[in-house]
Amino acid sequence: MATLNVPAHVPAPSEDAEQLHKAFAGWGTNEQLIIDILAHRNAAQRNVIRKVYGEAYGEDLLTSLDKELSSDFERAVMLFTLEPAERDAYLANEATKKFTSSNWVLMEIACTRSSHELFNVRKAYHARYKKSLEEDVAHHTTGDYRKLLVPLVSAFRYEGDDINQTLAKSEAKILRDKISDKCYNDEEVIRILTTRSKAQLNATLNHYNTSFGNAINKDLKADPNDEFLKMLRATIKCLTVPEKYFEKLLRQAINKLGTDEWALTRVITTRAEVDMVRIKEEYHRRNSVTLEKAIAGDTSGDYERMLLALIGAGDA
Amino acid sequence: MALLDDIEALNKAFSGFGVDETSILSILGNSNHEHKKSLRQGWSKLFCEDEYGFERFDPSHVKNLKLEFKRFRDAVMLSVLHPWERDARLIEKAIKKGPKHYNIIVEIACSRSSEELLGARKAYHSLFDQSMEEDIAAHVKGSERKLLVALVSAYRYEGPKVHDHVAKCEAEILATAVKNGDRKKPIEEEEVIMILATRSKPHLQEVYQHYHKICGKSITEDLEAHGILKDTVECLCTPETYFTRVLDLGLSVDADEESKKAVTRVIVTRKEALVKDVQNKIEGCLKGFYKDFMLGLIARGEK
Questions:
Q1: Residue B75 in contact with residue B294, Cβ under 8 Å?
Q2: What Gene Ontology terms for biological process does this UniProt record contain (chain B) (predicted)?
Q3: For residue B166, which residues of chain A lie inside 8 Å, CB to CB?
Q4: Which DSSP helix (H) or strand (E) runs through B159?
């Protein structure tokens, strides 16, 4: 469930656009006003505001934001203003570039979005980057990661609840056999993880747990230094219990010396309208402090206010 | 004699590609019991004398006849479906029928536009409660699996933008893979699959041109012995060549059943992209309602 707080009476998009324009005017910028508006409109509303702003002032809202804002606050506002599919396309593209490359972001996007959302990301990617997402991922990744990531981003999983228990049992066995033989990059493992529906995967993993005594991720911890194993575990987590994955990501981002702002910004802007409520619950359960407190303790200024607004912290 | 004429006419109506329903109707529809008996006795092609003293329907011909009668029905059923459902069903059947039919999967995955392929994948969810790639991955073994899964998962960029130097590098990669073909099959080469399954079609055309410059031969020539890999390469950039080849094979005199079925499939699914002289070929080979239906589809030409 979303934590985004949209007021009961939303001003007309033209009004919002005008207010935003005013916020940019003059020497400084009225960051609070920007937060008050953009952090309290849903994706459809933000889209209209962006369109209206462009028509009224001859400039894309994002361009104005880029001119006026800076660093982490700007990134948070910019990412949040983008439409979800565009945002994911942007993040994915960033993840394929040399200095910002991150297989983790690609995996996260591919596994935690629904089939239709992922397809919209691929469409948005065409439009924005004049290439297909899979071709960029194929070009910029290598070895086992490529074997895993290209099918992950190309998947169009069945989204129904139909499960085949016999299949779940047999595939649990296949996974067990491959893992026991330490064939982590085996084609069968990749096939099961990258093509089966999430419901089917859940059934398979439940069978794994019941039949073999350990949850699959426990068995995949055999070599704590193997990076690919880490990614496999994360893939499985993202496909089955995304809110736990995101909780961990947030925890690590906040506890790290300094803060991993990029991870923090990404998780919050991409999940605020999806399942942030569950992520917050999970965070509280796991860390005994609320996410709000943790963020307030670790960030400051407009960036902090933006993040807090997005996770529905009181009145921003 | 009228009987011999009838037999000759029926032979003609029952043989070939499709059946001549009109002739059959006029002859058999007006046959009484006696006439049919005479027909059976004189019609050595379809009936043979059985040791128990009756004119038995030759079993090998029964099967073929059934297939020919079905042709019109199958063509109509196929053409009435929404293109997405059509492609999804064709692929599902191809998966179940096995390796000899994998070229159909390649044909559909490579010759459809990105949106059409996406549509087929959506239809697959709806019809079979699974994703297309999951079904293929689960049923296809061996070296074809990676290629087929990758091909149906593609959502190629459809704009004209091409990266020339990348195309050149990729042509070199393909050339190397082909050269090392006797040591490692190109279809098992990950790079080859990545290039063919993810790049846009205009980009691939650039790659092919560079390949030709590097190797002096076209890539389709070099992959002649490589089964569905050749089909892939052909369908992606010169689909007309592929479809013409399939049609010619199916319309030839000694075509087998699968090749003949391909004729229906190609005409129904690609009517708007067919070469002009197909019509003449069909006039000569096909029969009956089946022929009329195919000609009608081609004449209309739209989806």
A1: yes
A2: response to cold; response to heat; response to salt stress; response to water deprivation
A3: 139
A4: none
Pairing of strands B47-49, B55-57: antiparallel
3-class state of residue B16 by DSSP:
coil
Residues of A in contact with B158 (CB under 8 A): 126
- B79-83 LR contacts (CB < 8 Å, sep 24+): B79/B268, B79/B293, B79/B297, B82/B123, B83/B116, B83/B119, B83/B120, B83/B269, B83/B303
CATH topology of domain A84-154: Annexin V; domain 1 (1.10.220)
CATH assignment of A13-69, among 2.60.40.1930, 3.50.50.60, 1.10.560.10, 1.10.220.10: 1.10.220.10
Contact criterion met (CB below 8 Å) for A102 and A109: no
pTM, two decimals, is 0.86
* Residue B119 one-letter amino acid: G
CB distance B133 to B125 below 8 Å = no
* Chain B residues touching residue A159 (CB < 8 angstroms): 125
Q: Looking up tokens 């549509």, which residue turns up?
A: B119
Q: Which segments of B82-143 does DSSP mark as H helices, in order?
A: 83-97, 102-111, 114-128, 132-139
Is A24 annotated in a binding site? The answer is yes
Residue spans per domain, chain A = 13-69, 84-154, 165-239, 242-311
**Other CB atoms within 10 Å distance of the CB of residue A74:** 18
Residue of B nearest to A161 (CA): B129
Cβ pairs bridging A and B (under 8 Å): 92
